[in-house]
Amino acid sequence: MVKVGMYLRTSSATNIDGDSQDRQISAIESYAKANGMEIAVKVSDLAVKGSDSIHDRKGFAKLIQYCLDNNVDTILCENASRFARDVIVQELGYRELKALNLQLIPVDAPDYFTGDSPSLNMIRQILGAVSEFEKSNLVHKLRVSRERIREKKGKCEGRKSLLEHYGKEKFNKLKKEVIKLRGKGMSYQKATIVLAEQGYLQPTTGKALHKSQLMRL
């Protein structure tokens, strides 16, 4: 039998002691039995609004973690409004579950989230456009930020230079040492060994500098 998770939600404290949970459990258990499913975990969010994001629900967060930890990839709820009453929250929540490879099934309409109704298509297109806009806007902001930093410092990305790692004083001492060693007829390769003994090493690996680094000085 396929293992599934059960999600219950009551929107107000007055419903906690009513028959809301019993009704939800009955509907979900009937669907699970009819479709060869075994309920592995049951989680409730009590007195939680249907417009609240799934990230703001402690119960649902626990349910997601349980499913990910125990290879449960299907969550059942009584209907779409039990998952979320706000249509936008529904769609965003469904998308996030889908990204985690979790399938959400409202038992009163199993094809609700995978259906092809005009209203759902419109919502998905709008959300897709908003997502694309946010991505493009972020890329633009990052580019502007990089350009601003580049104008101030001359550089804002890529591997750090020896000057940035060593600092101006040590870097200038290194240049003088290289000039002195080369003046004695020493090769760049031999100079890297001598400089390593003096503490001039690769900042990230601790190995001797490469001869090409000395040549660029």
Q: What does the model show?
A:
It is a single chain. The chain is α/β, with parallel strands linked by helices. The chain folds into three domains: 2-115, Resolvase, N-terminal catalytic domain (Rossmann fold, 3-Layer(aba) Sandwich), CATH 3.40.50; 116-158, no CATH class; 162-216. The chain has nine helices and four strands, in the order βαβαβααβααααα. Strands 2-1-3-4 form a four-stranded parallel beta sheet, sandwiched between helices. Helix 4 (87-99) packs across helix 5. The longest helix is centred in the middle third of the chain and has 36 residues, at 118-153. It is elongated, with a radius of gyration of 31 Å. The termini are far apart. The mean pLDDT is 84.
Distance between termini? 69 Å
Taking Cα atoms only, what radius of gyration do you get, to the nearest Å? 31 Å
> What portion of residues belong to β-strands?
5-15%
Mean pLDDT: 84
Main-sheet strand order equals: 2-1-3-4
Instruction: Give helix % range.
Output: 40-55%
